[in-house]
């Protein structure tokens, strides 16, 4: 950021003050010049009030001789007319790591004492009321017509909102990276687990495509809710609608799940449905599935119970080994929800039940 317009006004302010201080009051001409200088000084000070940032001016010795009202509104205390560069520590502020900013670190000191042409620092400034905000301080020297340094000026800019937006952006990027990493992990797991169980290239491709489509469906649902949460009924309908052909009945209250739980449930519902199509109730025309969920209140708090009940299909046989689908509908869901999955292979059909704590807060 350039301070040239501010520098020019600061230069003129210092020159006017010097004229007033050195003028010969015994002369009528000097008195007239002093009045003109005083009027010019008042005009320049009024101009400084129109600048949309805080402005502080120091003389060649480092004494702060001027500050516009914007400074006081930002810092919520009167201008501190520090006597020299060693006194700037009375403007209390802190680095990002919590260390106090020392006098020599302020741009005024660096420009006046160290002869820097441009000095800049972002500080966490402590206002007069005890609150803190992020402040950017930019300093440059002020020179007279001969090019000699006669002081320095700094612009004070409130960057609190800028910092908040940057922090929010960093959090968003970190969350996005986390979600992408998790998505790749799920895709890798889907492919690797499918490869273990299927030998047919056609069957492998179809299985992987279907599982990834189920995962993508849940992603699309979450995008519409800004990755916050999704209703269990909507997730179930999106996944099961194309599979069930109207033979999966769904019922339950409006219950929202956290985003990561919605992804897990979409995969679980898909595995339950495809298993029913291949081996269970949906493998025969008369078979039906009832998916229901309910909220219950107990001594340990509220819980969500989900029931998948198949009827009208062949009597199921309990598998001798657990595959990817069993992991997704069992252990994976338990780890994600903190719940407990129970299954039964009854003469009427396969039964799946999940009971989980109804906790709407991110863990």
TrEMBL record:
The keyword Cell cycle does not apply. Keywords: ATP-binding, Flavoprotein, FMN, Kinase, Nucleotide-binding, Phosphoprotein, Repeat, Transferase, Virulence. GO terms for molecular function: ATP binding; protein histidine kinase activity. SUPFAM superfamilies: PYP-like sensor domain (PAS domain). InterPro entries: HATPase_C_sf (IPR036890), PAS (IPR000014), PAS-assoc_C (IPR000700), PAS-like_dom_sf (IPR035965), Sig_transdc_His_kinase_HWE (IPR011102). Signal peptide: none annotated. It catalyses: ATP + protein L-histidine = ADP + protein N-phospho-L-histidine. Its EC number is 2.7.13.3. Residues 119-171 form the PAC domain. Gene3D superfamilies: Histidine kinase-like ATPase, C-terminal domain (3.30.565.10), PAS domain (3.30.450.20). NCBIfam families: sensory_box (TIGR00229). This is histidine kinase. It comes from Flavimaricola marinus. The lineage of its organism: Bacteria, Pseudomonadati, Pseudomonadota, Alphaproteobacteria, Rhodobacterales.
């Amino acid at each position: 950021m350039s301070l040239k317009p501010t520098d020019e006004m600061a230069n003129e302010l210092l020159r006017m003050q010097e004229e007033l201080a050195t003028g010969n009051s015994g002369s009528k001409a000097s008195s007239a010049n002093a009045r003109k200088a005083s009027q010019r000084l008042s005009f320049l000070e009024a101009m400084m009030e129109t600048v949309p940032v805080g402005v502080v001016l120091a003389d060649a010795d480092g004494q702060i001789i001027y500050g516009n009202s914007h400074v006081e509104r930002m810092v919520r205390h009167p201008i501190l007319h520090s006597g020299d560069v060693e006194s700037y520590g009375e403007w209390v502020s802190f680095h990002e790591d919590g260390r106090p900013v020392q006098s020599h670190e302020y741009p005024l000191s660096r420009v006046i004492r160290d002869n820097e042409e441009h000095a800049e620092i972002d500080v966490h400034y402590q206002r007069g009321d005890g609150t803190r905000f992020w402040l950017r301080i930019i300093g440059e020297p002020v020179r007279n017509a001969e090019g000699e340094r006669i002081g320095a000026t700094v612009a004070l800019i409130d960057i609190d909102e800028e910092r908040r937006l940057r922090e929010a952006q960093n959090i968003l990027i970190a969350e996005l990276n986390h979600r992408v990493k998790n998505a790749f992990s799920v895709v890798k797991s889907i492919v690797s687990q499918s490869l273990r169980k299927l030998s047919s290239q056609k069957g492998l491709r179809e299985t992987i495509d279907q599982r990834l489509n189920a995962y993508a469906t849940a992603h699309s649902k979450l995008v519409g809710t800004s990755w916050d949460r999704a209703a269990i009924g909507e997730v179930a309908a999106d996944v099961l609608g194309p599979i069930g052909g109207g033979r999966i009945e769904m019922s339950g209250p409006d219950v929202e799940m956290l985003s990561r739980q919605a992804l897990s449930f979409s995969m679980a519902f898909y595995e339950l449905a495809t298993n029913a199509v291949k081996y269970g109730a949906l493998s025969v025309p008369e078979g039906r599935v009832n998916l229901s969920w309910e909220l219950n209140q107990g001594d340990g708090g509220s819980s969500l119970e989900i029931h998948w009940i198949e009827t009208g299909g062949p009597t199921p046989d309990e598998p001798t080994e657990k595959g990817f689908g069993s992991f997704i509908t069992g252990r994976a869901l338990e780890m994600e929800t903190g719940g407990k999955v129970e299954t039964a292979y009854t003469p009427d059909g396969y039964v799946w039940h999940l009971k989980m704590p109804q906790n709407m807060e991110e863990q």
